[in-house]
Design goal:
5-stranded mixed beta sheet, Nucleotidyltransferase, domain 5, 9 strands, TATA-Binding Protein, alpha+beta, 3 domains, 16% strand, 4-stranded antiparallel beta sheet, 47% helix
């Protein structure tokens, strides 16, 4: 089966793709913005997502992916307040939200220390770059606010009926509000890395007293503006620092993400330090049930092994 390559990009690249292929035939695929056929290559565009299929799909994807990495929306070079989070997809560790106000005259200095390509940074590189930013921050007009929702409080709120996207919306709003209070005015351009529709985002905030409005929701993971890139890096940095504390608490090198290793470590905690699980993990993740099933399975295997040895 032919492989499909997916690129989430900005409006500039979308338009360039349309312009480049505009002389070629459109294919009959419904529910999409545009579908282009070119010498066995099929390109489907849905909002800010491009799907490459068929002949030379990988080459086309790599071409436009490289173009994406070196192209920014016009808004990228303007003053803006952005907000992003880290830890939402990690079984272990807190949820961290950061909002950052970045004046346009400070964008260059952030690019110089490597923040522009934040989507491609490893955790190790983030641990190296953020201290560099902290050193030069006082030389800039950059202002940021951070919120860390620890696992105990996170699990408590989930148990009360809140869902993850609702939590994220509330915390993004709080972080934005804090930064606006610090700078003393509301910027014209406010951007949140999109994780839910605009309608749902504001529905989640109906019971909040102060709601920051007139927000632009950038395509997910696009780093539409330097304020988003900076927010994402600081949020990840804080997440990693909190993870180090949790690793000291548990004595385990806790897995990032929500993979099989995270499940195995959850099983180990449930067996050896059950009181710590809710302090270090997001227990509503499927990993918790999988860990319990793994414990039952391992116990059954041991019992069967003992029977066969008799």
């Amino acid at each position: 089966m032919p492989q499909t390559f997916t690129l989430t990009t900005n409006t500039i690249i979308i338009q360039e793709i349309k312009d480049y292929y505009h002389t070629f035939g459109e294919c009959s695929t419904q529910s999409c913005t545009l579908c282009i056929e070119h010498r066995g290559l099929q390109i489907i565009i849905e909002d800010n997502t491009v799907y490459f299929k068929g002949t030379n799909a990988r080459q086309a994807y790599e071409l436009w992916s490289n173009r994406h990495d070196n192209t920014h929306e016009p808004l990228y070079f303007e003053t803006a307040l952005g907000s992003d989070e880290s830890g939402a997809g990690d079984y272990f560790g807190p949820l961290t939200i950061v909002s950052a106000y970045v004046p346009k005259n400070n964008i260059a200095i952030l690019e110089q220390i490597g923040i522009r390509k934040s989507s491609k940074l490893t955790d190790e590189k983030i641990l190296e770059i953020v201290p560099q930013f902290i050193k030069i921050k006082d030389q800039t007009d950059i202002v940021y606010s951070a919120i860390i929702l620890n696992n105990t409080k996170y699990n408590e709120l989930i148990n009360k009926g809140l869902n993850l996207n609702q939590l994220k919306a509330i915390l993004h709003n709080q972080a934005l509000t804090k930064t606006i209070e610090k700078i003393g005015f509301k910027p014209d351009k406010i951007i949140v890395d999109k994780f839910v529709s605009e309608k749902h985002y504001f529905n989640y905030l109906k019971i909040q007293k102060n709601v920051v409005d007139n927000i632009y929701f950038s395509p997910a993971h696009s780093h539409y503006h330097m304020s988003i890139a900076l927010s994402s890096i600081i949020a990840r940095y804080m997440f990693l620092k909190e993870m180090q504390k949790l690793e000291n608490l548990t004595g385990l090198s806790l897995s990032r993400g929500s993979n099989h290793m995270a499940t195995s470590q959850a099983a180990k905690l449930i067996q050896q330090q059950p009181e710590l699980l809710s302090q270090v993990a997001k227990v509503h993740f499927i990993n918790t049930n999988k860990a319990k099933e793994q414990i039952k399975h391992d116990s059954l295997m041991r019992d069967l092994a003992q029977l066969s040895s008799k």
